Amino acid sequence: MWKLKTNRRPSFSSIRRCRTVWRLVWCGVVWIQYRVENLRIVPVFGTGATKVSPRVGHLHITVDNLPWWWADASDNNTIDIAGLPAGEHTVRIELVNPNHMIYETKYVKFNLPVTVRHEFDGKEHGH
After folding, report:
1. From the centroid of its chain, how far is CA 119?
2. Could you give the CA distance from residue 45 to residue 57 in angstroms, rounded to a whole number?
3. Per the domain annotation, does 15 fall within a domain?
4. Domain tally for the chain?
């Protein structure tokens, strides 16, 4: 059974670009791996979830200081990003509790030499 040390603040124990990312960066895809301590990444939200044990939370991810972000509660320990234009980029990754209060923030900077084009760019497709 996994035991929580409740007196320890949740934090990133590591955050890095995947070893294979250098090949992928040349294809326009970035994989950022992370690992957290003293918190489980799960898709639960709200005040009630702040009282469960073990402690739970999720990630907020922002690219290039855009005014919007997305929440990642998948716990697959990897953030995949594709479709960005070529050039320098910064990803802000926040470790948050179920009420979106930030425990820790990390930044990953990288340069994309190419852009991945979506298979439907410029084409009509039906839904």
Report:
1. 24
2. 8
3. yes
4. 1
Exposed/middle/buried for residue 32 (C-beta within 10 Å: 0-12, 13-18, 19+): buried
pLDDT tens digits for range 34-77: 889 899 999 999 988 888 888 999 999 999 999 999 999 998 88
The position carrying tokens 């702040």 is: 50
Residue 87 sits in which domain range? 11-112
Here the CATH number for the domain that contains residue 96 is 2.60.40.10
- Tokens found for residue 125: 């497709």
In 69-101 the beta strands, taken as DSSP E runs, fall at 70-72, 78-82, 87-96
**Residues with Cβ < 8 Å from 8, sequence gap 6 or more?**
37, 38
Tell me how far the alpha carbon of residue 103 is from its chain's centroid.
14
Tell me if 3 is assigned to some domain. no
Within a domain: 118: no
Residue 1, in any domain of the structure: no
Tally Cβ neighbours within 10 Å of residue 10: 19
